[in-house]
Amino acid sequence: MKRTTKYIISFLILASSINIAQAKSKHDQVVDKIIETGNSDNRTMEYIDVLSNKIGGRLIGSNAYDNAVEWCASKFEEWGLEVWVQEVGEVPVGFNRGPWFGRMLGGNGMALHFATPSYTVGTKGVQRGHVLKEPLTQAEFNNMKESLKGAWVLIGGTNNGYPIDWTEKGDSLRNAAIAENIEIDRKNREARAKGETEMIPKRYEPAMFYRQMVDAGILGIIQSSPVPIRALYDRKNLDQMTFDNLPAVPDIKLDNEQYEVIAKMVDRREYFQLEFDIRNHFRMGPVKYHNVIGVIRGSKYPDEYVIAGGHLDAYDVATGGVDCASGVAPVMEAARLIAQAGGKPERTILFCLWAGEEFGLLGSKYFVESGTVPLEKIANYFNRDSTPFAPMSITVPEAMYDDFVKVCRPLDEAGLQFPFTVEKRPGEPGPVPKNANGSDHAYFARNGVPTISLNLRDPKGYNFSYGEIWHTERDTYNKSIPEYQEHAAVTTAVILYGVADLDHLLSREGLYAE
Q1: How far is CA 92 from the centre of its chain?
Q2: Beta-carbon neighbour count of residue 28 at 10 Å?
Q3: Which of 43, 211, 456, 501 is 20 to 30 Å from 326 at the Cα level?
Q4: Could you tell me the pLDDT band of residue 22, with boundaries at 50, 70 and 90?
Q5: pLDDT at 308 over 50
Q6: 336 closest CA partner among 81, 73, 153
Q7: Distance (Å, rounded) from C-alpha 54 to C-alpha 402?
Q8: Is residue 57 a contact partner of residue 317, using CB atoms and an 8 Å limit?
Q9: How far is 275 from 277, CA to CA, in rounded Å?
């Protein structure tokens, strides 16, 4: 009897120990499942495919952006997350880009390589016309006024992505340059009369006689552009737009080598024509735009937050395959991995897909300034918006070091393809940044919120160039790097879940100077 009792007691002690061990390892079980699923069934590139190739360029104000909002919200819901679709603001009109084509008729008959900035007008079907260089003086304009009708006009300057400013402010700058040049001409005539040889250079503004040329009936303007061609938008122009007050003529940015060929042909007064078909379309406004936020509620500290984000909008001259599908997709996959692993974090995790980053950090600014959550209760905001590289380390203040070593240990123990290290930040902390900019971390940082991001590397050597894709025609799906993107999703999920499950909020000691 005593022997039986001894066995029963031993069994109960063992069972109790197993239960305690299981209770303690619940977090680890979730993390193990995150890593296992991330390695065997990683869907990050599927999301980039949808965003880039099924939806496409995602300007706020476009139908594509609205589609992206709806699709992302539906995925969060599918995974069992709470979803906030947060209205951020509106643009006065919307814009949708269709296909564009161009060719030379006569000459060498080449196909034209070009783009147009966002929120600029297209052609009225297929339009063809002769080519002229822009007038630089009133006398030149008067001399060629009649020939401008039905012409494509070469303007000076080099494309930096922006359209010509056609607002009253733009007209004012050009008119001031015209008036100044009249005075410079007078002074130079006086100098020549005195035998002087050094002349005052004239001031130049691209499309100097823009308004007069439009009134004369030009088909559009053409400016030289480096390749790859960059295409942005002008906030001044957009702020002035209504559906009844849109740009008058196409603003074409042409491959600089083709531009030079055409300019020489114009100088030789050769006869040829250019033909364009540009399908830029506008939407009746105002058009609202939204943040999409997936929420996994904290089980113990629901009013404390760990946040990861990337911006959902993308310029539409390409498809936003890197900028910023490479931020959005790993954040989305991190949400799925945690949810499907049965994660019940102690703190609330927010997966934020921001609106209008390209238009001035509009979505993240609204989130911060509207008081969506208490800023002092945010452990950290992790932003992803740069290269499609692999996160391989994090650099933190000393007060956070032990916590991040604990949080990131599973990444080392899992033997992932790319190792991950935690490093202490050297030197003294700086003040809270007053002019942080560049991406969606900015308004968090300006308000003293930790915005420590993962350090990205290219260990395999893919020779990626961010400058090549930054707002250019080359920002497409194939510029992404699958193994890095998938690694980013797993790493992000493990770190978010680990920080959310700490028994205390991350210390801000030493984050910024007092």
Answers
A1: 21
A2: 12
A3: 501
A4: low
A5: yes
A6: 81
A7: 43
A8: yes
A9: 7
Measured in whole angstroms, how far is the alpha carbon of residue 267 from the centre of its chain? Answer: 40
Buried-state track 172-186, b at ≥16 Cβ within 10 A, e below 16: eebeebbeebeebee
- What pLDDT digit, counting tens, does each position of 98-149 carry? 999 999 999 989 999 999 999 999 999 999 999 999 999 999 999 999 999 9
The reply to whether the predicted model has a pTM over 0.85 is: yes
Do residues 93 and 241 lie in contact, with contact meaning Cβ atoms separated by under 8 Å?
yes
Give 280's contacts (C-beta < 8 A, 6+ positions apart).
Answer: 95, 96, 97, 98, 100, 116, 120, 121, 122, 250
Preceding omega of 72 cis (within 30 degrees of 0): no
Count Cβ neighbours within 10 Å for each residue of 190-203 and write b for 16 or more, e otherwise. eeeeeeeeeeeeee
Question: In one letter, which amino acid is 42?
Answer: N
Hey, what are 361's tokens?
A: 């950090």
Query: What is the phi-psi region of residue 15: left when phi exceeds 0, alpha when psi lies from -120 to 50, beta otherwise?
Result: alpha
- Count Cβ atoms below 10 Å from residue 49 Cβ, excluding itself: 17
CA 205 to chain centre: 29
How far is residue 499's CA from residue 422's CA, in Å, rounded to a whole number? Answer: 14
Asked whether the beta carbons of 84 and 351 are under 8 A apart, the reply is no
Strand 127-133 and strand 273-283: pairing?
A: antiparallel
Which residue has 């296992």 as its token pair?
36
The SS3 of residue 163 is coil
11 — pLDDT class (breaks 50, 70, 90): very low
Q: Is the peptide bond before 228 cis (omega within 30 degrees of 0)?
A: yes
- Find, among 139, 135, 132, 136, the residue nearest to 154 by Cα: 132
